[in-house]
Prior knowledge:
The complex is a heterodimer of chains A (225) and B (510). Chain A is an alpha/beta fold. Chain A has helices spanning 4-21, 56-68, 83-88, 106-114, 130-143; strands at residues 50-53, 73-76, 96-99, 119-122, 146-149, 160-172, 177-190, 196-203, 212-213, 219-223. In chain A, the strands form two sheets. In chain A, strands 1, 6, 7, 8, 9 and 10 form a six-stranded mixed β-sheet that branches. Chain B contains 15 helices and 19 strands. In chain B, the strands form four sheets. Chain B has an eight-stranded mixed β-sheet with strand order 7-1-6-5-10-9-11-8, sandwiched between helices. Chain B has a six-stranded antiparallel beta barrel with strand order 14-15-16-17-18-19. The interface between A and B is large, with 57 and 53 residues.
Amino acid sequence: MFDYRGVLDLALRETLTGVADRGHRRVPALPVTPALQPLLPAGLRRGSTVNVSGSMSLLLAVLGAASADGAWCALVGLPHLCAEAADEYGIDLARLAVVPQPGEGWARAVGALLDAVDIVATCPPARVVPGDVRRLAARARTRDAVLMPFGDGSWPGADVRLNLHDAEWHGIGEGTGRLRRRRVSVTVEGRGQAARARSVQLWLPADGGGVESVDTNVVALRAAG
Amino acid sequence: MPPRMIAVWCPDWPVTAACAEAGTSDEAPVAVFTANRVVACSHEARTFGVRRGLRRREAQARCPELVVLPRNEMAEARLFEPVVLALESIAPGVEVTRPGLAAIGVRGPTRYFGNETAVLHALSRAIGDTNLLIGVADGSFAAEQAARRGVIVPPGESSTYLAELPVSTLDPSGNLPLTDLLQRLGLRTLGAFAALPAGEVHARFGPDGLWAHRQAGGRDDRPLAARKPPPELVATLDLEPPVDRIDTVAFSARATAEQFIADLAGHGLACACLELSALTENGEETVRRWRHAGVLSTVDVVDRIRWQLEGWLAGDRRPTGGVTRLQLVPVETVPLGVHQQALWGGSGDDDERAHRALARVQTLLGHGSVLVPVRDGGRDPLQRTRYVPWGDEPVPERSPEQPWPGRLPAPAPSVLIDPPRPVQVLDDAGRPVTVTDRGAVPRPPARFVLGNRTLAIQHWAGPWPVDERWWAPDATNRVARFQLVDVAGRAYLVTCTTPGARWALTAKYD
């Protein structure tokens, strides 16, 4: 029996990888968990800006594999993180630093961290100066770090945007059961040639924590731009 | 022959310091605790049978009126400073092993004062009324043992003196497996151990054993091959602008201390005795020597910087300006083979870069601004995550690996609300939802009010009563947990405290 689906998956993955890699320096990208590979087939490209919105769990899931692989992560100005959840997504807490309230020094703190930390996830303050945006993105590019603004997609000039929507919890009823897993859709959008918005269905979190893919194929939504 | 030393030892120094700090009389039975174990106890407490290493409960069972104090290493360093100054007034080059134990060489002051007795008289005059014991012997290990018993060992008789002591004196903290092993082998005194041929000891117990063997024999407790370190191993830290807070200095010094240890390691050396000097913007200086039983690690170096500055800032000759320069001089080194740094002490390039960047952010935003999350033990999600300031040791207070029956099963909420935020949970008719004594919910929740938003509840689960600390006298409240999912698919963890049906949002499954 010929495995149509396997071949199709492979072809699709190769196409996407080729598109994402074109025109960039070949620094080994940071890995992502298999469930997120349909969204980020080439992993997290170093030097890029990845905007994550909609869910803290999604952010943790994106960081997970890279952190487990030995990357350092810093969270600046993000809400109070639960260490257990981070652990469930595979983040190594020994290589995670949290700056809960950077206050006025936000841009300087993020800049300093980009110099040495592989992934800096940050919740930008309400008003970000456009100069800071450019400076930080450039800093990430020269330092081969990944800047990961977390928020409602308000970060201008992000290379990749990940957005979580249509969340639905399973396992909980009216006074019965408990939260077991959540089925979500995550949409990825990129810039330039890679700008085909794709969406995948994920269990985030899956049973017992972590992220798993719901068994459906990548759906091309629309051609953007 | 090893150099003759005078050692001064303050018995139960952690107790004396903790009592002075807490304002307790040291006549009462007092014990000082770290991590629920007795670190030191007063003489009174010892007569009741309280011993080092006992658990608190056990110690209190032996002596119900025991005063329990936490250990305060900063106070220990600060209060020991006058003693060190007194020693320094007799002779320079005081070697402080730790707060409570210090030594000086005899040769210099003996020449000045005429004979040893005159030195001891001058010393006791200088020290005043601090309760301490003085011992004189050849070599600092023998001198320490002499001080613990308050005796003067005649020159050349240190090995005879040490021979009768039990093997456990080699390691008062009980951390070394060696002493235990020796006892099981039937070697109960230092003399019996010292009588073994050195070659055999080396073959069987390695460099550590050989060192202990030399100490036991009173021959020479100096490192096996004391080398004069080359000058480039001196580490200097310039602080610009001057820093007047100890934690900031200690924090900035961390990278320097790491570099210092790494440089020595690059030469195959480790530091056994360190000279630490600090200079202020107005030119005041403090210089002190710190000896370590083993070799100094980065953390040890930073601790000693803290102790020295703490003592300096609290003393009579406190500096008038901020610290501008810190210098670490390795006075005595040992070949690294004797004491290899632990595997996890070594860090890669990336780790070191990250450490530096985080240090920079911490200096930028202040101490405590960079935190490291640690998984902790407990039943409540808020208890299960603990944040420690960057640079402190990230250790859990309770083991997270224990079963903790009653905790929430995975997946864990991703965002914690600390402190919990008061919310209102209402039923269809807009009345607050309550939980009965039997743990039932008569009217199911339909809406909840979060700040100025009202959210309709789609699914809910609970109540899960929290059955913790019911024996405590203040535990009149009963708490139950709920999971709520609103119509937008967002899930929340809330608690309901009865009586009063006070609801609070503790975490979000974001």
